[in-house]
Amino acid sequence: MPLSVFAENVDNDTAKNTPLLNPVIVKSPSNSLKLNSPTILTTRKTAEDIIEKQVDDVHDIDRLDPSISYNSDSDSFNIRGLDQNRVLTTIDGIRLPWLYDGSRQVKSGISMFDFSSLSTLDIIHGSDSSLYGSGALGGVVALRTLDPEDLLTLEKNWASLTKGSYDSTDRSWRINEAFAMRAKQTYALFQGGYARGKQRENNGNGGGYGTNRVENNPANFDQDNLLFKLYQHIDGSQRLGFTAERFNLSKDIDTYNLSTTTYRPGSGTEEDEKRRERLSMSYDYNGGGVIDEGHAILYWQRQRNDEKSESDRLSIPKGYYMRDNLIRDTDYGLNLAGLKKFDAGSATHTLRLATEASSSKFQQYAAGHDNCPPPPFKGPFMACKFMHINQSDSPDTDSVIFGLSVEDEIGMINNRLRLTPGLRYDWYDHRPQDTYAYEHAAGFNGYPSSNSDSHLSPKLRLEWDAVQQVTLYAQWAQAFRAPSVTELYLNYTNPGFYYTRGNPDLKPETSNGYDIGAHLGDDNLGGSISLFSNYYRNFIDEIDLGADRDFMLQRLNYINRAHVRISGVEARGHIVFSSGWHSNLAIAYAEGKDTDNDEHLNSIPALKGVIGVGYSREQWGSDLSLTATGKRNKVEENSDFAKTPGYTLLDLTGWWEPVGKKGPRLQAGIYNLFDKRYWNAVDLPSAPLSPKDAYSQPGRTFKISFTQKF
């Protein structure tokens, strides 16, 4: 797996004039020796882009790239019609697992980071496990956190970055501070961020209590993020590092939308806490010899999501009612990567090698309290049969993954023609452990078997610089995803009525991805277009097998679907005029089907286009952006609720730097200028619990932000 690349000494004159937060520069004979250099299928966004687009929250990530969206229902990113654990997210090369308990709708994982702690954000489009391994079916979101070298220049031994903002969407205030220092060959960075706000507003009208409530439930949240890095440079070509990181999000919610026939109106509350912690040690080498570049990172990471709800029941069992659902994932891992550049005849070779090894433990537990008598339940207490508490629906599971990848970029005809074959081998092993709370769960029928498999993921990419500023490319790549612990081992059973069960015999999902496209022009006039088609096998899905004499209501099982296809097109363009005017265009479209059943997929977003025009001078600028989508009416059978109409939005933003780049920056934006009611298609559930307007996106909102570099 590619690791973050370290900064080294650069030419003094260059460094003195380099703006803060430029991408890290590596000391080497050629900047192409950066292990994490973006490929032709990668969109790289820097901290400057994040500031300029006023992106503080995962809901706003599509401002950076219209081809990616955030699914708030599953807390996951959607790329090319896939989300959840089919889009891999990493931070400094370390996986951020997507967690799901499978029965109580606790989902989280990929949003546990702070945008203000990032130096770069790479969006890697397409199905390709040849470098990243399991999970890269739709794409990869690769995050890299700030390094001291991102802030420091050679003329100063310290630097800082202060940011603050207010967003009317959730009435949130945010403050972030990053400080970097250098003492001879020792570098350090501390970054801290805090946010406080309320519920994210939708554009519906209708408060009150009960399931027909349209407005979002009242909520208050607190978010904090801490990042510390310490580096010791050695002889100009080596660097030792230590990183400590913690993210925490706490939210208190008044659940006014609970059923008023089951719960006393206004009695419901919910406390959600998401936390991620990480400790890591790193070693970076950039001195030539047997290898030109080498990187290693040894890490520990723990993620947890705890959702506690309380209320007062009106129906039997009456009285105090509490549920506390927890999922936790703890990982230990080692990532290694190396690069060597050499010539062989008339061809140049850039050889990249990487390996990934990790061990993890998944834990799930559902605590609770109600006024049910001891079983067996009879008469009015029959409802207690449906209340499963103080149990684990999945056993504690130990998992091991190992991956080894190799890639060789072969340059020919003065590097105008580049052929890149790649191959990755992955092996995984899931082993359920003795778990008291799982053994005492309803429907326990022994421990399931372990699940282990391996996969080879090849890739072949061809790039041709046909003429100056015109690059044509084509890529074929395979990808795979190992089944999750929940998909394998979930057992949520109500004997005689229903069950939701995993399948320990699941096979990994696999895919063949094809991309063809072109990159045109330069920073002043250019664009790109990509056509893609991905074919998936053994697509893991949950289906209802229907009732039988043992389970009279429902039987949900995980299975492998045989064939799924997703195809589409992505295009973007830009132009910058010497007069200060500029414009940009982006389009993303995808269509997906289960080709065996001829059924559409609900994870496919609607056709989306963005057109922007702006004007900027040295000290100020303004942009007007129009976003338009088509309607989405191609959805799965019996899920008409997931259909959405098209919409058109207008956003207006502006910025002011009164003393230039090194001074303060003030920004303001008005989003959804005409207060349009619209829906994010990938947010809508197939089976709703509330009216459709409750799932609408925010109406007209504004945001102001401040940035100061020292």
Give the helix/strand layout.
Layout: H1 12-16, E1 42-46, H2 47-52, E2 68-71, E3 76-79, E4 87-91, E5 94-95, E6 99-100, E7 107-108, E8 118-125, E9 139-145, H3 148-151, E10 158-167, E11 172-183, E12 186-198, E13 219-234, E14 238-254, E15 269-285, E16 293-313, E17 319-344, E18 347-369, E19 397-412, E20 417-432, H4 436-439, E21 451-467, E22 470-481, H5 485-489, E23 491-494, E24 496-501, E25 509-521, E26 525-544, E27 551-576, E28 581-594, E29 599-600, E30 608-616, E31 620-629, E32 647-656, E33 665-671, E34 701-709
Parallel strand pairs: 4-9, 24-27
Antiparallel strand pairs: 1-8, 2-3, 4-5, 6-7, 8-9, 10-11, 10-34, 11-12, 12-13, 13-14, 14-15, 15-16, 16-17, 17-18, 18-19, 19-20, 20-21, 21-22, 22-25, 23-24, 25-26, 26-27, 27-28, 28-29, 28-30, 30-31, 31-32, 32-33, 33-34
GO cellular component, one term: cell outer membrane
Membrane topology: Multi-pass membrane protein
GO molecular function: heme transmembrane transporter activity; siderophore uptake transmembrane transporter activity
Describe this structure in words.
The protein is mainly beta and 710 residues long. It has a single domain (12-709), classed as TonB-dependent receptor, beta-barrel domain (Maltoporin, Chain A). It has five helices and 34 strands. It has a 22-stranded antiparallel β-barrel. It has a five-stranded mixed β-sheet with strand order 1-8-9-4-5. A two-stranded antiparallel sheet has the order 2-3. A hairpin with a 1-residue loop joins strand 23 and strand 24 (496-501). The two termini are 35 Å apart. The model is unreliable at 1-33 (pLDDT under 50).
